[in-house]
Amino acid sequence: MSLFRRLFYRRPPDGLVEISGNILVFDHCYSMDLLEEDELMPYIGGILKQLLGRYSIDSFMVFNFEGSKKDNQIASIFSYYDMCVMGYPRNYEGCPLLTMEMIHHFLRSSESWLSLSQDNFLLIHAEHGGWPVLAFALAALLVYLKRYSDERKALEAVCKQAPHGLAELFSPLDPVPSQLRYLKYVSKRHISPESWPPVDKMLNLNCIIIRKVPNFDGQGGCRPLFRIYGLDPLAPNDRATKLLFSTPKTSDFLQLYTQEECEIIKVNVHCPVQGDIVIECVSLDEDFEHEVMVFRAMFSTAFIEDNLLVLDRNQIDILWDTKHRFPVDFRVEAIFSDMEMSTAIHKSELSSKEKESLSKVGDAFSHLDWSSESDHITNEESKQKGLQREHDGFDKIPLEETEISSASAENSSRSVQIHHIEPAENHSSLENVHYSQPEASGPNIQGQLFNDASAQEEPEVDDTKIEPNSETSRDAEAGDAAAAAAEWSDNNSDVFLSDTPSSSTPSSPPKFDEILEAGMVETRSQLTELKI
């Protein structure tokens, strides 16, 4: 290594901060002061001239984390020096984080570039307001390159470069809990690098449970409203994030929960999710107008284990000065279930009008608490997966919630009907997706019934006893025969519909010839009376 290079490592050019090795960051990213537009060009241009005076332009890969402005001024400055810039957003639905797809792109690009030559450098810039996501990206890179084995220490090593209070200036919520969660996702790459990152799972977010009510009304209670953000898993070609779920702002759905009256807040969601998801909870006043942020949490469905996500008060993003509002044993639980592909395809092919109709049906019943049924199912799944400890509170519905649970249990049969609602005009789409459903492994009762019926030998009809000159007798004979056959079929239908052979042998049905003879005898007697 040359003396000049050793001097470069010892003291990087003015205006740059060396994070680790060949990773350089512009120092004004750590500043609370906003550079004016007419100051950016000479400031950044002077730093780039120092770098290009020592190294080739091909030695640098430039990343930029965008700020609040979208004028691409930074990109134009670097393009003036013939340097390409890869830009990343400053947040994801309010969280200063990148999606797993972007994280993977950033880490792989950085690793590949640094491994090509020891003279290659990463030049990283963040616009005003982009510091929180820049800190996360740098910590993720340090963990990915195994320069830190502890996620929290890696994040602290980056944050200590910035003055105190910089994160509070650019982020109203403390983003560290969600950032640490995603740094742990990055650490899992060292366990199984061949399968990282895992494929995003499509799950159904059944419900969200809050244990121990936080105090956001000044009297030991809150009126929570939940919002779910993410990509629509039923529209894979649409890459724009959407509001997937929101609690309706009506008195039927928004209730005041107090610490004295209840221990659990359960919100039914029933929303399909996939990929990077943000759960946001706010508390409303009694007029449903003023909102106060309770918490926010970002996660990836690819890393959900056992269809359960449990977060305590140290694992959610909250306002910087509101930790005392949460009880020590506060917890948030998100309960998921596997999403059947046939159901997902069916929902994706529904028209917007049909989706709106189904959504209204779900909203009409979502405020009901089917605790007696859903809690039992959840406990059974928990026992099978060894998670009974996490769900033991499902059976404890305190005070007034007990009355709601007992009342809703009486109407639990309606829940089954809701899940089977299908628009009448959508039968054609169901036929189109039938091929995706797995073949039933059980016996085909309809097919068995059809085969059994066709396998029986048709009785031969004795035509010699029918009088050809009497049309009335023919009609009467046919009618009586059909009625007798239908009566015998009704009385013996259990023989065909039974899946298992009966222990008692059913009585043999009368022969078809005997039925016809009976009909002919009766008809002849009627004709004799008419002739007399």
UniProtKB/TrEMBL annotation:
Residues 434-454 have a biased composition (Polar residues). Residues 372-391, 434-512 are annotated as: Disordered. Pfam families: PTEN_C2. InterPro entries: C2_domain_sf, Formin_homology_domain, Prot-tyrosine_phosphatase-like, Tensin_C2-dom. Keywords: Hydrolase, Protein phosphatase. Residues 373-391, 462-477 have a biased composition (Basic and acidic residues). PROSITE patterns: C2_TENSIN (PS51182). Residues 200-339 form the C2 tensin-type domain. SUPFAM superfamilies: (Phosphotyrosine protein) phosphatases II, C2 domain (Calcium/lipid-binding domain, CaLB). Coiled coil: none annotated. GO terms for molecular function: phosphoprotein phosphatase activity. This is C2 tensin-type domain-containing protein.
